[in-house]
């Protein structure tokens, strides 16, 4: 729903130009227009789906002269008799759905109903992916598409490291936090976390790192190399972590 404009009223209806002091009053009024029928009486609030019914209705408003039927010209002594006669000429006001025969009082309601039929037909005709907005006209195309989802899941579940390692048998222990490691080189890298030592320096910008691998990743920013390629599109990344984040999106 559109929010109120800046400033104070009056606010004018874009359909019939009626003015309202409050924005909320105009909103309620314009929602009522959505239920309007196209042929409107200029002397009252009645509206009709058929022009003939409007002409018949206008004849029921009191006027000069003897009441007469605008369709067949018959004259009547009383307005009540004319109203009873006009029912013979009136067309059915309800609009009928060509698909199922349901009846609706306005074109707007019939249009909404017709859209439901289209949506049902669309669902029956196409095969929808339950993991993304894609849809296909043939079942085998959907199956091929689902293989891609499975491939992405498999790539995201891959881990190059182990979690919850049992370190009780490792002999190389950190003297600061007592964490144990299998190899001296692993302990050496770990100790740098405590000492703050950063022995690996970038020769281009002189930034330092505590691990050689971190320096190599950093150097790819200077070289522009993107060795980690997405297997689902043409994107490439300098770091494996960025590739994984891309696939997850």
From TrEMBL:
Location of the protein in the cell: Nucleus
SUPFAM superfamilies cross-referenced by the UniProt entry: beta-beta-alpha zinc fingers
SMART domains linked: ZnF_C2H2 (SM00355)
Domain (C2H2-type): residue spans on this chain: 11-38, 39-66, 67-94, 95-122, 127-154, 172-199, 200-227, 228-249
Superkingdom of origin: Eukaryota
Keywords: DNA-binding, Metal-binding, Nucleus, Repeat, Transcription, Transcription regulation, Zinc, Zinc-finger
Record-level Gene Ontology MF annotations: DNA-binding transcription factor activity, RNA polymerase II-specific; RNA polymerase II cis-regulatory region sequence-specific DNA binding; zinc ion binding
GO cellular component assignments: nucleus
Keyword set includes Repeat: yes
InterPro entries named among the record's database cross-references: Transcr_Reg_ZincFinger (IPR051643), Znf_C2H2_sf (IPR036236), Znf_C2H2_type (IPR013087)
Pfam families reported for this sequence: zf-C2H2
This protein's record includes keyword Metal-binding: yes
Family, per entry: Belongs to the krueppel C2H2-type zinc-finger protein family.
General function of this protein: May be involved in transcriptional regulation.
PANTHER family: FI01119P (PTHR24396:SF19), ZINC FINGER PROTEIN (PTHR24396)
Protein name: Putative c2h2-type zn-finger protein
Organism listed in the record: Rhipicephalus microplus
Source species taxonomy: Eukaryota, Metazoa, Ecdysozoa, Arthropoda, Chelicerata
